[in-house]
Structures are given as C-alpha cells and as structure tokens.
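Appendix B: complex inputs.
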Amino acid sequence: MFDLTERCALVTGASGGIGEAIARKLYARGATLTLSGTRQRMLESLRVALRTRVPGTHVFVFPCNLSEAESVERLVTEAESAMGRVDILVNSAGVTRDSLILRMKDDDWARVMDVNLTAAFRLSRAVVRGMIKRRFGRMVHITSIVGITGNPGQVNYAAAKAGMIGMTKSLAAEVAARNITVNCVAPGFITTAMTDTLSEVQRNKLISGIPAGRFGVPEDIAAATLFLVSPEAGYITGQTLHINGGMAMV
Amino acid sequence: MSDSIAERVRRIIVEHLGVEEFKVTENASFIDDLGADSLDTVELVMAFEEEFGCEIPDDAAEKILTVKDATAFIKANVKQ
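Resulting structure:
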C-alpha cells in the first residue's frame, strides 16, 4: 500500500519540520524528490540524510524564494527537468507574521499572503499543465486549523490558509476529470520551530484545549500527506484532512 | 511544410479529444459535437499555440468554438 515507486514529487518548505517529515515519508515509499525551501544548508543535509539510492539521482535540491513569481516558475521548470516531470506537489512552505490587527502592517499582510497563498496558486498553476497532459497528478497543500477556526493575532495567516482551502476546492473541481486530485492537510498544533517560540504557560494552555492532551508531531502530518498522494486515495479530492488531536472537529 | 494548417489543426483535435477523424468537420463544435469539456478547449488552445508557435489571447480563445474558428484564427495570425 501507498507505493510511490516511479513517482516524482516536489516538496516545498522541506527545510521546515513538517516539510522534512513529508519528504522522508515520500522517499521511504520510493518517490523521487525535489526538495525546495529557503535554507539551502538544511536542504542539502536532508538530501545527505536520505542517502540517495543511486548517487546523483532521486533527490534534488532547488532553493526558492516563494514570494517571487519568477522564482516559483523557475523552481517548477528545474524540478521538471531534473526529475522528468512532477507527479506530486506537496506545498508545505509557510511563514507567519503575527500581530493584532491594530499593529499589523500592510507588509505583514502582503508577505504572509505571498508566501502562503499566492505561491500555492503559482505552484499549482505551473505543475498542473504537465499533470493534465499526463492525466495524473496529486497535490497536497498544507493549510492550518486556524484557516477554519481563526486565531487572534493571525488575521493574515488565517486568511491565507482559509484561501488555500477555497483554492483547493475550485482547482479540484477543474481537474478531477483528468485524474488529478487536490487536497489540503490542516495541522493543529504540531511540535516544530513555528511552535517552539511558545512559552511554557502558552503551551500548557493550548494543550488543555486538545482532547489528545499533547501536540502532534510532524510525522502525523507526513502520514496523512502520504495517504493523500498515494494510489489508494485517487477518489479523494477537494477535501481538507484535519490532524489536530481533536482540538477542532469540523 | 507538408501539411496544411487545416490538416495540422485537425490532427491536434483528433489526438487531444480522441475522436474519429471523420467527425472533425469544418463546422463541428468542440463542445457540442466533439464531446469536449471546458478544460479540453483550454488544452486545445494550448496545443495550437505550441504547434504553431503563436500566442492566442484569452478574448480570441473564447471565440474559438469550432474547427473552422481555429483554422481561421491561425491562418490570420500565424506567419507561414
């Protein structure tokens, strides 16, 4: 089950905790990978850690600044020429610029929209062309529970993540007849660099609202992503899979 | 240049829509007669652009509904 042999996947945000766990999981199931992110050294060490089955093949690294339109286009072109095609897109890149709306600058809004939502649109548009031609594709966008519930201090991030869900549904409807599925995975609180900045007090308060009594781990998100990109999930499209220990049941 | 524009257009339509060649008549509508959906029509326009090395703007693409529309547009806009 969940065999990805012969499949070529582009994973953005692979230098982050969730993206890295996804990359590891897809690789373990046989996928050829292109890793993208902002921190080249972390991407390179992930490539080394994956111990490529055949040196010089199977794992490629292309750093990318997702806030620039041309960089996004170039990333997809590079991934397609390195791997031959992109069958699977996992967009796990994301940034936060939290503050209450009264203190939020236009730039905080724009930056979060650019990297979280506009880049997701541009990546999807760039990879879908080849997927339509080949009559196969899997896309997973990593959104967030706050896109559904909202969260004080995150009007920008929550708006971008909610936007991703709407985009996913529309795109899923456009390309379903071409054997392409488009889904979201919505993490709740997961132990990563993004949540490491929380204080002990904040953390305990959050945990009290999670029925499972703990934060999730990146592997929880990776497992769901693997499922959605696998052959077994071919009839699942336009959905958002929530992984949050029961924190929000939607 | 062995094939005429009309022949190349017809070949692309046959390949993309998987229809039999005799059905691809001058007046055949992609959607009504050849079973295309809206995404097929976008794919066809992309295939014409690739084949003839031209760009078909959105407002022109919207008016390409039949086989004849496609050949006429390409004849008028592509230098041979």
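The two ends of chain A are 28 Å apart (CA to CA).
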